[in-house]
UniProtKB/TrEMBL annotation, chain A:
This is Uncharacterized protein. GO terms for cellular component: nuclear pore outer ring. It comes from the Eukaryota. It comes from Lactuca sativa. PANTHER family: NUCLEOPORIN NUP43 (PTHR22652). InterPro entries: WD40/YVTN_repeat-like_dom_sf (IPR015943), WD40_repeat_dom_sf (IPR036322), WD40_rpt (IPR001680). It is found in: Nucleus. The keyword Nucleus applies.
From TrEMBL, chain B:
This is Nuclear pore complex protein Nup85. GO terms for molecular function: structural constituent of nuclear pore. It comes from the Eukaryota. Belongs to the nucleoporin Nup85 family. It is found in: Nucleus, Nuclear pore complex. The keyword Secreted does not apply. One of its GO terms (biological process) is response to abscisic acid. Keywords: Membrane, mRNA transport, Nuclear pore complex, Nucleus, Protein transport, Translocation, Transport. Functions as a component of the nuclear pore complex (NPC). GO terms for cellular component: nuclear membrane; nuclear pore outer ring. Component of the nuclear pore complex (NPC). It holds the Pfam family Nucleopor_Nup85. It comes from Lactuca sativa.
């Protein structure tokens, strides 16, 4: 395993537990903001805050504005309509959904619309995802419901796409196109949904997992806008795999225990992979050799319970970026500046790094 | 057990335990229930410091209650916050930062210890003390850096001459205590420089004593505040007092800086006070040339370093000779400023080690003790002689209630590990003691025996283990630190694993994140049965809350066949009606989840088989291929034979496969198979009479048509054979 050289690395201790964080699309040309969902264990208060990140040699996070929520945040996503203000979607463990609109001038929360608990789901919302333009949001839960929430100027409107009545639980969701999305759940299963064909998932993935891998849980899904046929997932036992819709039931294992073929197994972590994202960063060294053919999975960044932040590539040795003493719960790659990554650490801190 | 430590109460107790009981506090409980309430409360511990109180309503009144939601009662969670033992680090956030930071050095050192023990066992030799002390020092430095840094503020280019003392952030006494332990126990290489290390230590931490006793630091702070208003410093007694005090504890840079404030340095006075100025400067130079028995000095500190004893001896003699010479100099007679003359001579007496002058200049015994090292006995070494010296200083400067750091110093010098432990535990809490034992035992066989010996009065565990257990309990009581406790528990040989299991069982695993954390910890420490139990709890929780898929998934993970079988019966009731019609499709996702046959599915195996059977039947209906039909027939037999197939599904299954039983091309089942099915049919008709019979909802002629089909098939099969 190789390790990535970092141009900058800073650990910023916080006074609260960080449940999730995201880079906010730039509100203006010079500002950089990070949305952080935090939980104060001493006061039991939870909030979503916008922090200004000043990109000096010693970066700091300065809280600009904060929005209190009634329960801890289970999932946090941001999106931006073209030429419009970004919006933030956050779901809570109590089951409510909040859509927040930050003000571009002072990074305060301009307005908020929400759907209360016990409406969308019974119990917690496991995951939400916003469409690229922010016009719709999908929510999934352990109760087996899949909801579509349309976000418009007049407010929120929701529609139940599917209800498995608890027979199947969903733990992750991700949009693929304006009409399609993927969900993931127990047993390392993935489902593909198409709004044009309602009534249930149009395709189900339940690979020929070896004993053990089939007992995993999908924690995170990503789909690259240019490769909509490939669904990337990360879950238990360090597994990161891709599901190519064209090759139905055979997973492409990027890391972790997978099929019975143990010889070619790459295992960077053996704990839960909390988040996966396609890594859009091209370092100067790999830009030269970047000939990623269309049938290979694009590079993937993942973070894990045992404190690993790494980039995995199909058929190559993974590159370790961080190895922390505690879990890395979530991370985000700056879409404007993909060399920059921010991650939340279990021990109440945020790490900011710049890749060389 | 940790509880026994304080519970013993007799003379064998190690930590002073005050049996005085606090008056019980009464808090009103806001449960929001309308009376009448039963006089019965159920109280149980929730996670961490939360207490769960269940308040019940009187059962006889419940039927008259209009509000349905209030019928049973209510559960209230109370968060308890006791007084903070870590009086210094009362800021919970800062405290947790120390907790987080100390995990990895501790775990690292434990790993090293185990590796070294394994290696020495392999080589049949004692582990190298030298190597071990290197690791301990590394550990100590890492922990020390967590407790705060001595931040030197950026010095401005134009230094204010009137700022003699830089007042930084208040240092923590926790760090002071840790550094003391480091000086005496961890830093084996610089044992011979302990006196100088103590001088530095006092420089950093003298201010900590200020709260309880007057200190040199406090004196300087007060003087600095006055300084702005003073015109001619040399006329002020406070000025000279500050100088002599600072000199006595070796803060040479401050002394020199203060001396240079002397009025004789002012340009307009130089002419008239030339001799006086010469004397002040001569003293200042002598002070800045003081030989120090140490490797190096930090920036800005004064003195001449001597690495070895003989060099130091020479320099020391020479320096003292110079002082004596200056003391006897004739220039003093020419010095007209009385106060300057007297006080400069006083400074020379301090440097010459005049015990009375030193006693007057210092404020408390630790300062006097340091002054001894500097000016009277620079070669003091060995804890015994250091202890004797400390006793002497205490006699000269007695103190009514010793500061906690003073008690710790006496404990260390007295070589009494039990006292050190007691002081650490009393003043600095469980964190300190759990981490400091590593320093105390490093290279000290006596302390090691004391700490690692299994004690009957501690329930068979060692003192070291008991302190770790106590610390682990502290960690366990907080929602954000409980996951750290396993690191400490696992280093406890006797009760660690047992308590770890209890800790894991206590976590509210029905929160999925807590469950996953639990499973991860179990995986790391190979506690398979614990994680299986957690999965069972979660499985049942999901099942009860209608999340059948998750319930079955986690019970499967736990390989809990018993529960899965019981669940299966319930599930079949649920499936019952839908089995024959198309709504069976909704079960597809669940069946997918259950996975292949190799997995533990208990009675649910039937669902899987049934789905497969249904699929093969589907194929038969689509075409007329005899092969497919034969296969379907085989799977019918296997599903009927399977003991997991519930009896109530026998008839519907047969009814579904009527087409197979009356296959045009010839009989698909042989005689014995036909007989088997007929027997099953008979059994299921008998079962109708039993009280627990469930009606499946088939047309009334189903039984007769199946019977007829089976008979036809049997007849044809007999003919064929």
């Amino acid at each position: 395993m190789s390790t990535e050289t970092l141009k900058q690395f800073h650990r910023l201790p916080q006074s609260t537990y960080i449940d999730a964080l995201r880079f906010l699309p730039p509100l203006s040309a010079f500002d950089r903001y990070v949305v952080i969902a935090s939980f104060n264990s001493d006061t039991d208060e939870t909030s979503i805050g916008i922090h200004a990140l000043n990109p000096t040699d010693a970066p700091t996070l300065t809280l600009q504005s904060s929005f209190p929520t009634s329960s801890r945040i289970s999932s946090l996503k941001v999106a931006q309509k073209s030429l419009q203000n970004p919006l933030i979607a956050a779901s809570t463990f109590a089951g409510s959904l909040h859509i927040l609109f930050p003000n571009p001038i002072d990074a305060s929360f301009e307005s908020e619309v929400s759907i209360p608990e016990k409406t969308l789901h019974i119990g917690p919302i496991s995951c939400v995802d916003l469409q690229e333009n922010g016009s719709a949001c999908v929510s999934v839960g352990e109760d087996g419901r899949v909801n579509l929430i349309s976000v418009s100027d007049s407010g929120l409107d929701y529609r139940r796409v599917f209800d498995s009545k608890g027979l199947v639980s969903y733990t992750a969701a991700r949009w693929a196109s304006p009409t399609e999305f993927a969900t993931g759940g127990l047993g390392n299963s993935l489902q593909w949904w198409d709004q044009r064909r309602p009534g249930g998932p149009v395709s189900q993935f339940k690979g020929n997992w070896a004993e053990g891998a089939s007992s995993g849980v999908v924690h995170s899904i990503d789909i690259h806008p240019s490769r909509k046929h490939t669904c990337l997932a990360g879950g238990s036992y360090g597994s990161v795999f891709a599901w190519d819709l064209r090759r139905q039931q055979q997973p492409i294992i990027l890391s972790g225990i997978g099929t019975n073929d143990t010889a070619s197994n790459i295992c960077i972590s053996s704990s839960d992979v909390w988040e996966v994202q396609y890594d859009t960063f091209m370092s100067s060294s790999n830009r030269a050799t970047a000939n990623i053919s269309s049938d290979r999975v694009l590079p993937v960044m993942m973070c894990s319970e045992d404190g690993i932040l790494a980039v995995v590539k199909q058929g190559e040795e993974p590159t370790e970026i961080l190895a922390e003493n505690c879990a890395i719960n979530s991370f985000d790659i700056d879409p404007q500046n993909p060399s920059d990554v921010i991650c939340s650490l279990e021990w109440e801190s945020v790490a900011i790094l710049t890749r060389a | 057990m940790p509880g026994l430590l304080t519970g013993s109460g007799d003379s064998s107790s190690l930590v002073p335990f005050s049996p005085e009981l606090h008056t019980p506090a009464v808090y009103p409980l806001h449960h929001g229930l309308k009376p009448p309430i039963t006089p019965r409360l159920s109280i149980s511990w929730s996670s961490g410091n939360s207490l769960r109180v269940s308040v019940f309503r009187s059962p006889e009144t419940t039927n008259t209650i209009e509000d349905e939601a209030e019928v049973g009662g209510k559960v209230v969670e109370l968060k308890l916050s006791g007084e903070d033992v870590h009086s210094e680090v009362n800021d919970a956030v800062r405290w947790r930062r120390i907790v987080y930071g100390s995990v990895s050095p501790f775990a690292h050192l434990q790993n090293k210890k185990n590796a070294m023990a394994a290696l020495s066992e392999l080589q049949h030799s004692a582990p190298s003390q030298l190597e071990w002390s290197k690791y301990v020092l590394e550990y100590s430095k890492e922990i020390n850096s967590l407790l705060g840094n001595r931040k030197s503020r950026p010095t401005s280019l134009i230094e204010d001459p009137k700022t003699v003392l830089k007042i930084d952030e208040e240092p923590s006494s926790l760090k002071a205590a840790w550094e003391l332990l480091e000086i005496f126990y961890a830093n084996k290489q610089s044992q011979s420089w302990i006196p100088e290390q103590l001088v530095d230590w006092l420089t950093d931490y003298d201010s900590l004593f200020s709260g309880q006793v007057p200190t040199v630091h406090l004196r300087l702070v007060e003087f600095q505040a006055q300084l702005i208003n003073i015109q001619t410093v040399e006329n002020e007694a406070a000025y000279w007092q500050a100088i002599s005090s600072a000199l006595s504890v070796g803060w040479l840079d401050i002394v020199v800086k203060l001396l240079r404030l002397h009025g004789s340095y002012q340009l307009n006075q130089l002419g008239s006070r030339e001799t006086e100025n010469g004397l002040v400067e001569a003293v200042a130079v002598l002070i800045s040339k003081m030989p120090r028995m140490r490797v190096d000095l930090p920036d800005g500190k004064l003195g001449e370093c001597c690495y070895n004893k003989s060099d130091f001896m020479k320099a020391w003699e020479k320096w003292r000779a110079q002082i004596t010479k200056l003391d006897c100099s004739a220039y003093w007679l020419q010095c007209s400023h009385h106060q300057t003359k007297e006080n400069l001579k006083n400074l020379l007496q301090i440097m010459l080690g005049n015990i009375n002058t030193l006693t007057n200049a210092t404020c408390h015994w630790v300062e006097l003790y340091i002054a001894h090292f500097l000016y009277i006995r620079p070669f003091t070494s060995g804890l015994e002689s250091m202890h004797v010296l400390a006793q002497k200083c205490i006699q000269l400067k007695p103190i009514s209630t010793p500061h906690k750091l003073m008690s710790l110093i006496i404990g260390i010098l007295g070589e009494n590990t039990e006292v050190i432990l007691a002081e650490c535990s009393k003043s600095f809490g469980p964190w300190m003691i759990a981490h400091a034992t590593e320093l105390l035992t490093a290279g000290n066989i006596q302390a090691e025996i004391l700490l690692k010996e299994e004690r009957h009065n501690l329930g068979g565990i060692s003192i070291e283990e008991s302190h770790r257990l106590v610390y682990a309990q502290v960690l366990s009581s907080h929602a954000l630190t409980w996951q750290i406790a396993p690191v400490y528990l696992i280093s406890c040989m006797k009760h660690g694993v047992g308590l770890l299991e209890i800790l894991l069982y206590k976590q509210p695993v029905y929160h999925s994140q807590v469950l996953l954390k639990n499973i991860e910890i179990c995986r790391l420490y190979e506690l398979d049965s614990v994680s299986a139990n957690a999965m069972k709890i979660v499985g049942m929780h999901h099942w009860k809350h209608g999340r059948k898929g998750s319930g079955i998934f986690w019970l499967q993970q736990a390989r809990d066949e018993v529960r899965l079988n019981r669940i299966a019966q319930k599930l079949f009731d649920f499936v019952g009606k839908s089995i024959s019609d198309e709504s069976f499709e909704q079960w597809e996702g669940l069946i997918e989840l259950m996975g292949t046959e190799s997995r533990t599915v208990g009675g649910l195996e039937f669902l899987h088989k049934y789905r497969d059977f249904k699929k093969s039947l589907q194929q038969v209906q689509d075409g007329v291929a005899t092969d497919a039909a034969r296969k379907a027939g085989e799977s019918l037999i296997s599903i009927m034979k399977n003991p997991s197939t519930p009896q109530r599904f026998w008839l519907p299954l047969l009814y579904d496969s009527l087409k197979l039983l009356t296959w045009q091309e010839g009989p698909l089942l042989n005689v014995s198979q036909c007989n088997l099915l007929l027997n099953k049919l008979q059994e299921s008709t008998v079962a109708k009479l039993r009280p627990d019979f469930v009606e499946v909802g088939l047309p009334p002629h189903a039984l007769s048509s199946v019977r007829a089909a089976l008979a036809t098939n049997l007849g044809r099969a007999i003919l064929e054979e």
